[in-house]
Amino acid sequence: MGSMDTSHPRWSQQTKLVVSLLILALSLYLLYRFRIILIPLILAFIIAYILNPLANYFEKRFKVRRILSTVLAFLIFYLILALLPVTFIPMLVSQFDGLNVDMQIVMENVETAIGHDYVIAGQVIDGEAAFQQVIEALNGLLEPFVASTMSLAVDVISSFVWVIFIAVVSFYLVKDAPEFMVWTENHIPPSYRPIFIHLRAEINRIWAAFFRGQLVLALVVMIIFAISGFALGLPFWLAMAVFAGILEFLPSVGHGIWLITASLIALFAGSTWLPVPNWLFALIIIGLHLFFQQFDLNYLIPRIIGHSVHLPPLVVILGIVSGAVLAGFLGISLAAPTIASGRILARYIYSNVFDLDPTSENVASPLPPPNLKWWQSQSQKVDPAKKGG
Q1: Domain layout of the chain by residue ranges
Q2: Which of 350, 369, 372, 371 is nearest to 361 (CA)?
Q3: pLDDT tens, position by position, 265-286
Q4: How far apart are CA 358 and CA 350, in angstroms?
């Protein structure tokens, strides 16, 4: 008897196309159907992405099991979260206690200010009408952002169930990261595995540089605002410096939130030592912050983050607006690395369409090394002395 033929007929190109489209449609439907868990899941992935290198370090450095290194990484993470309020709240409370603001006097000053007419360049301006126009403009500017942000805060942060969900999912993502990476690579066809590893490395480099750059940027902004706020006598200078560092994670929008808060404090409380009227001090704060905003957008962000992301400012701005509409706070914060990751995938598609090598050029480059010219020049000056000795 002849051996039974166990081979099965292969799918035609049309069958593969139909099945692929059905899988895509089903995936999009499930994504829409369970969209309520999308933002918490993204937050869990972000936490896991940040803590995974720390767990890898503990696993290799101390030769411990993966679950123990994961527990150590999360213990450090939660310890930092617990120490932040313990460290900063007493300092902030001491600053707030040092400011004695009589709200009755503040309201009387506001009523007096808006009750007068002002003459500017020969034009008489009604103070009350101008104040109402400013309030309406600010409401129109901040209402969409505040609504989306408050909705996100209510749905994710303030919900204890979602907090537990994020903590559990992020923990298992870190613990099972090596197995997940191996499982993913094994399910990629061998001929596509090298390009998959290349694209993954490129995207990973972008996100690693983004998070590292954001932390450095927030720290730099915090230091600048602390020094300038203390020098100008801005009330709550330390609190406002910490606030500015946190708001640096909200591109463009964060500057507006800080400026409104600081200008109101300057207008109502004035400087702690500058002998200028409150309204003039508020104008000084506004002018200096507008200058810093340009310095931040045109120097700090390109220097610290732009070298790795390589996105034009207009693309980043459009991405921020689109991200705000689609995902609120999270969309604003992650717009730049998401667009940069999409550009890597688009370049891969472009290379295959036109039969180019998709690995010929790295889309994302690491941050440039520090400038060692000064150190090298000093070393060259010292070496002859050593030789002479």
Answers
A1: 193-369
A2: 350
A3: 888 888 888 898 888 999 999 9
A4: 8
